[in-house]
Every structure is written in structure tokens, then in C-alpha cells.
Model the fold of this input.
Amino acid sequence: MRVVLDTCILKLATLPNPDNPSGLIAGLAIRRLVDPWASPAMLEEYADVVGDHPDFLSEITAAMHMCHPVSRLRVIRHEPDNRFLECGLAGGADYLITVNTASGHFDRAAYDTMQVVTPGRFLRVTAVQALVRKYLGLD
Amino acid sequence: MLATAIIDGKIVKYRLSPALTRAHRRNAGKTMTDAGAVAFVEHKRREKAVRLAKTYLAGRS
Done:
């Protein structure tokens, strides 16, 4: 299952929030139970945002498949968000996981075949629940 | 270290990777809302834009 992780998911993963679905998603990615995709532009932003946790940055980026989008999209009004869309569409991602579904950001339910989901909604997808059980060692 | 996520009303405890465990220890006591995380990323984006603009302008002067 191919996913694109919005940068805020990585930021939230590093915080000990009492309800932290983003940390679980990062765990699924690190254990390669899901296939996260990233472009050079996304890696640069990941480094800017979670660079103060270099071990985590290196652990999560090591699990990522690289894509080099050849086209520059201008679909989303908030320009930097288009880098995630470009990567997801070029890499054939099934899900873009974000908490930023406000108007002008990832405000559509799907872009082509890539669905936009929040961390909580992603973890409720039946196929993902099977992966979570595997991650938790319940299978 | 164990962390928790609430999925469909059920509390799920999961083990963090060693790097995430270190991150959680460093961030002990801190929490952030989804909106806070979005604002944090936007702040970083603005900082980078300003940095690049300064470099560009310095090159032109």
C-alpha cells in the first residue's frame, strides 16, 4: 500500500500526545508495512520540520521510496502542498495522509485515484487494520 | 516505549521505534494539536521562503 505522508504527520509522530495515530503510522512506515513515497522537495521539508530529531528523520526517510516528479502541478491553492500531490500521483500512491484538509489545502476527498485521509481515518481502513494487527504482533 | 492511539473508540497501545522513543523522551510533557502541527509546518515554510529570498536579494545587490 503506497502512501504519502504530509509533513505535519511526521511532526505529530514525534510528540507524546495521549492519542497519537501519527506515531503508529510512522511505525508502520518504518517497519515497511506500508510503502511511503517522497520526492526530494518533500525530504527537504521533512528535514526542516523534524531535523531536530535526526535519528527519527533518518529512520523514516530510509524507509521511503523516492520519486522524481517531472511535472509541476498547480492544483492546490496553497502552493507548497502541490509537491505532495506531485509525488503521490507520480508514485501511484493510494493514500495521502494529512491533518490539513482545510479549504485551499488538501480539501478534496481524492486526487485522481489517491484518497486524502486523516491519520484516524487511515487507521480505520480495513486493509490497514490488518497491517496494524501485524505491527502489534496480534496476527 | 509504548504510545497510544484511539481507533474506533478503542485504545491501542503500540511500541515506538528506538528513534521515536528518543524523540518522545526529548519532547516529554509537550503535546500539539493537529492545528498546531499545521501552523508549525507553515511557520517553517515561511522561514525557508524568507531565507531563500534573502539569499536571492543579496545576490542581486
Remarks:
- The CA atoms of residues 39 and 67 of chain A lie 5 Å apart.
